[in-house]
């Protein structure tokens, strides 16, 4: 899926290592956990931004294309 979605948005994904390169130490587990947290919060942040943008767009369109004008 990423092979289709990312290029469609002009995004390139570069993988620099494999799972075999990572050891099962506590440090690597913490890194994975932190990446999961950052991914979750960034998704929520961008979701909130897009919801605000959609609401603003809807308000502007309803004002501009109002039959009362």
Features:
elongated; 69 residues; 2 helices; mainly alpha; single chain
Q: Average pLDDT value? A: 79
How many strands, what sense, and barrel or not for the largest sheet? none
Order of helices and strands: HH
- Which oligomeric state applies? single chain
Helix content: 55-70%
Molecular shape = elongated
Number of helices: 2
Which value, in Å, is the CA radius of gyration? Answer: 20 Å
Poorly predicted parts: none
What's the β-strand tally?
Answer: 0
- Summing up helix and strand content along with how strands pair, one would put the structural category as mainly alpha
Strand content: under 5%
Alpha-carbon distance between the two ends: 46 Å
Secondary-structure map:
Elements: H1 2-8, H2 26-64
Structural description of this entry:
The longest helix is centred in the middle third of the chain and has 39 residues, at 26-64. The model has no long low-confidence stretch (mean pLDDT 79). The protein is mainly α and 69 residues long. Helix content is 67%, strand content 0%. It contains two helices and no strands.
Summarize the structure.
The chain is mainly α. The protein has helices spanning 2-8, 26-64.
